[in-house]
Amino acid sequence: MKKVICLVSSCIAIIYSVIYSSLGGFSGNSGALSKIGLEHPLLFAVWGLLTYFALAFNIIVGYKKTRYRFYIPLLAVSLIGMILTICFDFDYDKYNEYILHCAGSLAFSAIMGITVFLLFLLRKSYVLATISGVILITDLVLLIIFKETAFIELMPIFAGYVMLCIHNLKKEKTLVEIN
After folding, report:
1. Any residues with CB less than 8 A from the CB of 31 and at least 6 apart, and which?
2. pLDDT per residue over 133-162, tens digit each?
3. Residues 134, 129: Cα–Cα separation, whole Å
4. Average pLDDT over residues 13-37
5. Contact at 8 Å (CB) between 136 and 117?
6. Helix (H) or strand (E) holding 53
7. What per-residue confidence (pLDDT) applies to 146?
8. Ramachandran region, residue 151 (left: φ > 0; alpha: ψ -120 to 50; beta: rest)
9. How large is the average pLDDT for residues 121-136?
10. Cβ partners under 8 Å of residue 123, min gap 6
């Protein structure tokens, strides 16, 4: 059942993200998810909660296969980041809200990305860890060069959904005892 929830929540989040992003366009700064949220705050809140739930549930399922529990406070801080992102406007005229929004967005993105990367690294999924690291670095470079666009913002999130589902849906190798 957990695997089904992982897959379904990721699919719903991807579909909703594409529909939500189409409100502002996928390229150009006007298509940034937070800018769309200025005109559609309720839709932005739904997007944020769906995104957090899909990623967090997949991460929890992935880490349950390990003895590590450090992901729990990381997910809590990431949730606080998402709440700040949703609750405060991305409006420079409201400078304090703008700062809280940006700090929340950065906390959510960075901590979620690191948590996913560490999961793959600790589970010895080196291919997924490498892909995850490359995507995170590429996304950072693209953000610096082109600023925010829906495509650049969604790229690591969609990659996270796909890689986490691949990781969580694959069969576990079982050790065979030889007598």
Report:
1. 21, 24, 25, 149, 150, 151
2. 999 999 889 888 887 777 888 899 999 999
3. 9
4. 83
5. yes
6. helix 41-63
7. 82
8. alpha
9. 94
10. 62, 65, 66, 167
